[in-house]
Design brief:
11 helices; globular; 5 strands; 336 residues; five-stranded mixed sheet; 42% helix
Length: 336
Amino acid sequence: RRIRGLSMTRPHHPFGCSKWPGLWVCADYAPSSESSEAAQRGTRIHDLFEKLGTESEELDLEAADVTELANAQWAVDQLDEISEGASVDYEEYLESDEPEYFGYADAVFQEGSTIHVVDCKSGQGNDYQWVQLVGYAYAIMSKDPEIDKAACHFLYWDRRQVTSYFFSRAEVYYTVLQLMNHIAFGGRAKGPQCNWCTRYDSCEEVQHRLKRAWMTDWDHAFDDIEMLKELKPDLDFIAGMKKRVDAALKEKIDSGAGVEGYQVYTRPGASKVDPNAAWEALKGSYTINDILDCCKVDLSKLKALHEIRTGEELAGDYITPGKPITVLRKTKNEKV
């Protein structure tokens, strides 16, 4: 059975596989149903990915954002390489009877006795996302005893990276059993899922982080590399909590509540100029070079447009590399 449609309008199962990475870490994970701009962007790119892959007549190239279109096209090209001519089903509806759930895989194809499950992701991803695709593979295997292997592929369009995981039938079944046991006997644990959990504010793990930071021996912390390493995730978490507090205060003041010492004001947003209209209006007094000197080129959009039109990566002496920036980043322990 197949159901097509955007992820914002199609039904979602309470135990759907998209929740599994969070549940793999924390048995009490309860994701928020609120949509963010990042989520809406991902939905638009997924829609373009499906329409490009199926060569849908509904695809409107003129209306699509060029950067989002380039991301979707890259993912379709990667899928073509992975599938090597196999018949691909896009936006595939999958369901399992025990445990009971359903979900939607971005793409599925079969190669002999191996099922390939593909999911497209925005952003950097995390160490636990592979569990989602194991759930899709299990749903397929539970209805087809001839399939004995699963190949799970993530297409990260923002960072142009393909990450693949491979499982035997026994490993897929054991992973699902592990998840069910963890949910039945587990407890709360910190992880990337906390940012989207509705139990964030009352969670014991959150309270523990606040207490640890409060009780830290700050006189010695900056001289102890192990203490700094332990503090970093706690302070990152607290920084995220500050954003929530700011948003809550703003909402209460907007609703009419008086909060001593704080007020909400509206400042004017940054003005935007239409370069083409500006040129038409000012070309009697300005040269085209004058207008170009006043314009800031969106490099990501320029790269995307070049990739769509030529199929090649943009390069040239006119691109001046920026000054290197040192960034602290946690290393990943990916499952291979």
